[in-house]
Amino acid sequence: METWQKLLQASITKPGDLTRRYGIDPQPLEEVAAQYPMRVNPYYLGLIKEVDDPIWRQAVPSEQEVHDSVCYADPLEEENQSPVPNLVHRYPDRALFLVCSECAMYCRFCTRKRKVGGESMLVNRDTIESGLGYLSEHVEIRDVIVSGGDPLLLSDEKLDWILTRLRAIPHIEIIRIGSRIPVVLPQRITMGLIRVLRKHQPIYLNTHFNHPDEITETSAKACTRLADAGIPLGNQTVLLRGVNDDPTVMKRLMQRLLTIRVRPYYIYQADMVQGTDHFRTSVEEGIEIIRALRGHTSGLGVPAYVIDAPGGGGKIPILPDYLQSLGTEVVLKNYLGETYTYVNVLQQLPAEEPLQRVNASTTAV
Prior knowledge:
This protein has 365 residues and is α/β, with parallel strands linked by helices.
């Protein structure tokens, strides 16, 4: 048995198992774990420095989860945009394909908190075949995001089968994988898995680092293996209260991601998912974090800040107000708050004039 499988088997799934190590009262957390499953493997547990630190908050149940009366079970309307089970078709040319119902760790802020790791999320060969059939029939879909749960928790053989079937669909050009495995169980990124992924290029992988302490020698090695295999890596960070809602922490995270060849892709405003209201920050705080990144670190390290609109509206970018006015002069404000002027285009040449000039030039030659 491989190391990653042993680690997964040794996962803590009951709050009571934390008592000996941290001296906490597990009783209030048992109700939470009964409603929202808990799983923390020894590797990720070892990153915790103290109770309620940024790693703890992501992994360990909180009483606040069952007292959330503000958020919704399915705020993004995934169920209503699923023409077949476990496939979400929201955007015209791409689809989200859920192929695994489990994760290596059950993040307490998960968008699919309502069903991942529970009996309500059924993924089997029939549902996967149904999804593959839908993708085959819809020629407008050129980009598929393989997600779950975590697809990299599947065996190499099963993942290879799914990717082979996707690659057999002529109109699918891009396969993306969404996985938190490089963060929470990097030992799973074996050379056997790398060989499977390399077979099905082009593949892009978006992972999910939320705090600089998650970037360890082990997770960096996992990302190196993926990058060396020619798999572009992006990162989707969720803005989380008590985890990364600090401009200094977020800037350090973005900079460290670049050192392990992971390109910051999105910062998400936390979704309005039932059981996660205690993680949500204000949008103003998110905008200030983007202000603290733009101009203060490389553009490579400045992701898009987006809200995945409740009701299934999709991702909407949120930007600081750098544009002050429009007209004959465009007044701009930079990252230091200084204003600059750009002279706007007042009129354009008639459409035929450039063509005449090209023809004249060609004649002269």
